[in-house]
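Entry type: protein chain
Record version: 2
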Amino acid sequence: MAMTTKERTDLRQELVGQGYSWKYVDDWASKITLYRHREVKNPSGETVGQVGAVLSNLPGNPDYVNRKARQGLLSWPPSDSCICRWCMALKGATEPTPAREEAQEAPVAQRPKEKGRKGPYYQSS
């Protein structure tokens, strides 16, 4: 199926937002390995897909990879340095971040009000 330029640009921007390379849309591999970054549970609440599970020999076309990235399947293994939303949520659930709490408590500095106009065209004569 052919893509329009807008569809290609939108797909590229979404993949870059997920952590993929800018060139992925142009230089994709035919088969890739994806790693699960999100735990999958069935309707009764039992875990059926563990974080870190390897899924091999999947299609590598950008549209498929984009759909799977929304579901928590990425082409790199989960790690402590991973910044995907599922790994960040897992880190946030296990480690409190006092820096964010301190930033919320700090008073916000107000910008001083400027009197009059400034610039070469507004100089008083």
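Comment: Residues 5-18 form the longest helix (14 residues).
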